[in-house]
């Protein structure tokens, strides 16, 4: 059914599908898993970090990128793009230029929603132009606005964007999202530490090998961006495992 | 022209050949060179069933040589990983033979000197119950080779008192449905069985217009024709490479009669499965 209407981006199928856009969404599923959580006073971005080839310089493989920062305060917007790496680089550059351009023109830094809308509009343009293909990337954009409210947005290759309390993109995102739906409670995000642990727990649903394969970044209100080292992630994982053991012991006691 | 399930009219490709074929044949003459090339190609694409230890070909088909009551076939890397961790780990399995073949999908070009680790379809039987067979098939068996594979494994007149279980995976975008693929709960399991299979099924049956492809389809068709009870468990997933969540989607099968008595230690199996997963998988530079 799809084969006659999927060769050109600008052609709808009889039942209203834009197959190239849907195929671009499949490209996103080939990337690593990323998770974003909006806490009460913190935003967390976590991503699965697969090992690089032996001779490749690991420093050049950074997934979590800053889009903008305030003159004297925290990073206003942090993002992660999942999907085609080259597309991600191009879009991040355009977004960064837009952040600076906005600051020069309006003398205010962008809000998280503004830059998300800019990225989404850019992506949408490429679903409506002839001779171009859509960007094969989804993004999670987090940050704090001037009003101090934490924000998390997600965009996809079709150019839609929505605000989320917690979301996941990339490989097995559905599994992670289901985990988040079950475990995202007011208690779970009450403290910063709990929000961070929730992000790590969500990633551990699909990432097998532990701390060295998870990249984590947080922004707390009125504080600078913090990128976690592998050791710090491992510390949190050990805490999570201890809690699991305690919970299992309690269960077995109850059943006895 | 034909109407598809969802109402769109498409020209269906005809596997019987086009109507113009007869006229074309009269014009073409086959030279001896053509014949030789054809024979060489047929030899190269031959499916060989070998005894592993002696590396000699089996004279008769596998299931004619050994009596079989239960045959579990895993096709594809996720299905193979599932059987390796949950079934092969719970008993002592002895290798009885392997099928070696070459087609355009194979990465190696030399079929004669394949190393012992490169056998593509390996057959095992349970030491404590030698009529229980298992096949781990991680290669692609092309259409022209499927009949040969069936002949070499099942033979031309198979026994009817055996039960076949096939496990395989397919990408979720192949699943035809009026919903969008984004809303499907992948990975999910669907089953397709032959008329003679009477046991309860642990998951929904595969709905129309979906069809089964490749070797699983060949085996099921063969079983349907020969009235052998057979069931195919098809896992639709969006991660075709080796993936923990996809392999775990096969778990409901552990409770069925097909695998009853063959699985003992599930937590340990899960641990083995995690180790199997390539934790050192290199990051692709195209996808971030």
CATH level-1 class of chain B: Alpha Beta
Count of helical regions of chain A: 6
CATH superfamily heading of chain A: Aminohydrolase, N-terminal nucleophile (Ntn) domain
Secondary-structure-derived class of chain B: alpha/beta
Order of helices and strands of chain B: EEHHEHEHEEEHEEHEHH
Subunit structure (chain A): The 26S proteasome consists of a 20S proteasome core and two 19S regulatory subunits.
Family (chain A): Belongs to the peptidase T1A family.
Main location (chain A): cytoplasm
Subcellular location (chain A): Cytoplasm; Nucleus
What would a concise description of this structure say?
Chain A has 256 residues and is an alpha+beta fold. Chain A is built from 6 helices and 10 strands. The termini of chain A are far apart.
Structure description:
- The complex is a heterodimer of chains A (256) and B (288).
- Chain A has 256 residues and is of the alpha+beta class.
- Chain A is 38% helix and 23% strand.
- Chain A contains 6 helices and 10 strands.
- In chain A, the strands form 2 sheets. In chain A, strands 8-1-2-9-10 form a 5-stranded antiparallel beta sheet. A 5-stranded antiparallel beta sheet of chain A has the order 3-4-5-6-7.
- The longest helix of chain A has 26 residues, at 230-255.
- The longest helix of chain B is centred in the first third of the chain and has 13 residues, at 32-44.
- Chain B is built from 8 helices and 10 strands.
- In chain B, the strands form 2 sheets. Chain B has an 8-stranded mixed beta sheet, sandwiched between helices. Chain B has a two-stranded antiparallel sheet with strand order 1-2.
- Chains A and B meet through helix 1, strand 4 and helix 2 of A and loops of B.
């Amino acid at each position: 059914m799809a084969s006659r209407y999927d060769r050109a981006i600008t052609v709808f199928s009889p039942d209203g599908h834009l197959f190239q856009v849907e195929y671009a969404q499949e490209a996103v599923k080939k990337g690593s898993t990323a998770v974003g959580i909006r806490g009460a006073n913190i935003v967390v971005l976590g991503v699965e970090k697969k090992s690089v080839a032996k001779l490749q310089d690991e420093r050049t493989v950074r997934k979590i990128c800053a889009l903008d920062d305030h003159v004297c305060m925290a990073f206003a917007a942090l993002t992660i793009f999942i999907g085609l790496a080259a597309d991600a680089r191009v879009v991040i550059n355009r977004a960064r230029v837009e952040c600076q351009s906005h600051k020069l023109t309006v003398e205010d830094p962008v809000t998280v929603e503004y830059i998300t809308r800019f990225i989404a509009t850019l992506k949408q343009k490429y679903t409506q132009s002839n001779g171009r293909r859509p960007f094969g990337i989804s993004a999670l954009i987090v940050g704090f606005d001037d009003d101090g409210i934490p924000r998390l947005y997600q965009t996809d290759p079709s150019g839609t964007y929505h605000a989320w309390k917690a979301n996941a993109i990339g490989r097995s995102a559905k599994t992670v999202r289901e985990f988040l739906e079950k475990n995202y409670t007011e208690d779970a995000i009450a403290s910063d530490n709990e929000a961070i642990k929730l992000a790590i727990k969500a990633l551990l649903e699909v990432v097998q090998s532990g701390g060295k394969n998870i990249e984590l970044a947080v922004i707390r209100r009125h504080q600078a961006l913090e990128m976690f080292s592998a050791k710090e992630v491992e510390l949190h994982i050990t805490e999570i495992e201890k809690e699991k053991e305690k919970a299992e012991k309690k269960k077995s006691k109850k059943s006895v | 022209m034909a109407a598809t399930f969802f109402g769109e009219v498409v020209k269906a490709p005809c596997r019987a050949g086009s109507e113009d074929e007869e006229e074309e044949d009269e014009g073409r003459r086959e030279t001896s060179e053509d014949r030789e090339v054809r024979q060489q190609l047929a030899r190269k694409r031959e499916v060989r069933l070998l005894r592993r230890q002696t590396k000699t070909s089996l004279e008769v088909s596998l299931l004619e040589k050994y009596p079989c009551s239960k045959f579990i076939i895993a096709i594809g890397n996720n299905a193979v990983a599932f059987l390796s961790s949950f079934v092969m780990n719970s008993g002592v399995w002895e290798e009885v033979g392997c099928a070696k073949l070459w087609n355009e999908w194979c990465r190696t070009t030399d079929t004669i000197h394949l190393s012992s680790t490169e056998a593509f379809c390996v057959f095992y039987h349970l030491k404590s119950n030698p009529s229980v067979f298992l096949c781990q098939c991680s290669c692609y068996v092309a259409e022209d080779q499927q009949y040969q594979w069936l002949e070499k494994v099942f033979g031309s007149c198979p026994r009817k008192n055996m039960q076949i279980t096939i496990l395989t995976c397919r990408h979720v975008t192949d699943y035809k449905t009026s919903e969008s693929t984004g809303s499907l709960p992948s990975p999910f399991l669907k089953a397709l069985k032959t008329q003679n299979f009477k046991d309860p099924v642990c998951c929904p049956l595969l709905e129309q217009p979906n069809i089964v492809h490749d070797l699983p389809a060949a085996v099921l068709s063969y079983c349907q024709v020969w009235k052998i009870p057979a069931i195919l468990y098809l896992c639709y997933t969006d991660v075709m490479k080796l993936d923990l969540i996809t392999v775990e989607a096969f778990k409901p099968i552990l409770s069925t009669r097909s695998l009853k008595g063959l699985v003992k230690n599930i937590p340990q199996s899960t641990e083995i499965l995690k180790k199997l997963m390539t934790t050192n998988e290199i990051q692709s530079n195209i996808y971030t």
